[in-house]
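Aim 2 progress. For Glycerate kinase, the working sequence is reproduced below.
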Amino acid sequence: MKVVIASDSYKESLKAIEVCEAIERGFEAIFPKAEYVKIPIGDGGEGTVDSLVDAARGENYITSCNRAA
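Predicted structure tokens for this construct:
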């Protein structure tokens, strides 16, 4: 059996990937032989950038801009 876990973040609590991992742990207790696919998602709000960076296996960079047009 394959189980797809797609979740958004829990505001100010857990990142989307952390929610997916927690759900996976719960399912594994009942279905230990299943294959799990975790898909962290975002709705455009808090956590969306983290989901995109995680999915692309990228990195966040912080910089400053002095002359924004």
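Residues 2-55 form a domain with the Rossmann fold fold (CATH 3.40.50.10350). This observation will guide construct design in the next reporting period.
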